[in-house]
Write a sequence for this structure.
């Protein structure tokens, strides 16, 4: 993978929080960006504890959060029409495409998106 900027999918950060050594190693020295959708999804766990919330807060603060900008919204519309994706995945993919950085994910549904620079991890 060239460059040091990456965009992480929600599942990648969940694995990072679970101390997945492959993810930890992959992200060392990288400038990690996330979509605002990933930021919001991280807090979606049922019965999240204050300690878990604090850990997620620290993780999010260490990332560059990319908001839902007008050009990203345009890309979302195009991706949803072309690939019939769910909205959160379309926003995450559009964010990576707009930012021109690779998306790191465990979700092979992203493989169909030709416009996307993808780093697909396996469990």
């Amino acid at each position: 993978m060239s460059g040091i900027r990456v965009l992480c999918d929600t599942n990648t950060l969940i694995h990072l929080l679970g101390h997945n050594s492959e993810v930890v190693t992959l992200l060392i020295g990288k400038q990690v960006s996330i979509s605002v959708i990933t930021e919001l999804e991280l807090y979606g766990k049922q019965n999240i504890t204050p300690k878990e919330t604090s850990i997620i807060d620290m993780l999010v603060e260490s990332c560059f959060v990319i908001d839902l900008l007008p050009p990203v919204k345009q890309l979302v519309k195009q991706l949803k029409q072309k690939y019939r994706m769910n909205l959160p995945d379309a926003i995450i993919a559009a964010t990576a495409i707009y930012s021109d950085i690779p998306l790191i994910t465990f979700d092979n549904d992203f493989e169909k998106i030709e416009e996307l620079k993808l780093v697909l991890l396996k469990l």
In short: Strands lie at 5-8, 31-35, 64-66, 103-105, 118-120.
